[in-house]
Amino acid sequence: MTISNEDVTFVLSQISTAYLAARKKHAPMRGAHEGYAILKEEVDELWAEIKADNIENARLEAYQVAAMALAFLLEVRSK
Questions:
Q1: Which of 2, 34, 71, 78 has the maximal Cβ count within 10 Å?
Q2: CB contact burial 39-65 (16+ within 10 A = b; e otherwise)
Q3: Distances in Å between the alpha carbon of 12 and those of 31, 33, 56, 70, 77?
Q4: What is the reported pLDDT for 78?
Q5: What is the 3 state secondary structure string of the chain?
Q6: Is the Cβ–Cβ distance between 46 and 58 less than 8 Å?
Q7: For residue range 42-68, what is the model confidence (pLDDT) as tens digits?
Q8: Is the pLDDT of residue 79 over 80?
């Protein structure tokens, strides 16, 4: 399987879009514990789709996992 720069750019664009949509709907993460809980919830949803063998929905959930990982990196800071 060959992955092009365009493929990477597209996926990163989708992650950015998912992050910005989440921020329109929800407040930024208030700390590491909340960030972990949000990430865990998204990973659990991804796992449910994988177990159901629904790869298209799993891919959509993977975007949400990545978007919330991005949120953690951008929003959770040391005190």
A1: 71
A2: beebbebbeebeeeeeeeebeebbbbb
A3: 24, 25, 17, 10, 22
A4: 80
A5: CCCCHHHHHHHHHHHHHHHHHHHHHCCCCCCHHHHHHHHHHHHHHHHHHHHCCCHHHHHHHHHHHHHHHHHHHHHCCCC
A6: yes
A7: 999 999 999 999 999 999 999 999 999
A8: no
